[in-house]
Amino acid sequence: MLIELNKPYDMLCQFTDGTGRATLADVVKVKGVYPAGRLDRDSEGLVVLTDDGQLQARIADPRHKMEKVYLAQVEGVASEAALDRLRSGVALKDGPTLPASARMVDTPAWLWPRTPPIRVRQTVPDAWIELTIREGRNRQVRRMCAAVGLPCLRLIRTRVGDWTLDGLAPGEWREA
């Protein structure tokens, strides 16, 4: 079984939590499936869940270099130099990243409001960039953006391999 879930903001990417925080179990009532990779609590978007351990490993293990596509709302305007740095790979404390695909995009027309909304600073512009990575380190996209001077305000994963977020509202899921 394979499930595509649009994980809402402020939800843990796990099925249990002893402190009462929102988890995947609040929206996915299917037993025996597990996330193939994770999204941070403050990130949104596509999480693939499966009951197939081999598939889970193939999706989550960086050795397989499965593409993951993110939309990042960043503070500031992404210069071509910043995008080139992302495309070349960025030096992080845990080592350099693989090169990423990176481009400026317009605010997505399908974007849902986030609760709570992101902080808005009247004197600092923001922009959206689309990043495609083939790794999956802890908070990697946020750290990459920060390393090139573009702090991430909102992060939405839209695609993992061939699976997409298309048509799913936050908290909705479908069998793929």
What does this structure look like?
The protein has helices at residues 53-60, 80-88, 140-147, and strands at residues 2-7, 34-35, 44-50, 68-75, 91-92, 95-96, 101-105, 126-133, 152-160, 163-164, 173-175. The chain has a single domain (2-175), classed as Alpha-L RNA-binding motif (Alpha-Beta Plaits, 2-Layer Sandwich), CATH 3.30.70. The mean pLDDT is 94. Strands 1, 2, 3, 4, 7, 8, 9, 10 and 11 form a 9-stranded mixed beta sheet that branches. A two-stranded antiparallel sheet has the order 5-6. It is globular, with a radius of gyration of 16 Å. The chain is 14% helix and 31% strand.
Write the layout of secondary structure elements.
Layout: E1 2-7, E2 34-35, E3 44-50, H1 53-60, E4 68-75, H2 80-88, E5 91-92, E6 95-96, E7 101-105, E8 126-133, H3 140-147, E9 152-160, E10 163-164, E11 173-175
Parallel strand pairs: 3-9
Antiparallel strand pairs: 1-3, 1-11, 2-3, 4-8, 4-9, 5-6, 7-8, 9-10
When the domains are counted, the total is: 1
Helical stretch tally: 3
**CATH superfamily label:** Alpha-L RNA-binding motif
Tell me which CATH architecture applies here: 2-Layer Sandwich
Spans of at least 5 consecutive residues with low confidence? none
Helix content: 10-25%
Average pLDDT over all residues? 94
What is the CATH C level class, in words? Answer: Alpha Beta
The fold-level CATH name is: Alpha-Beta Plaits
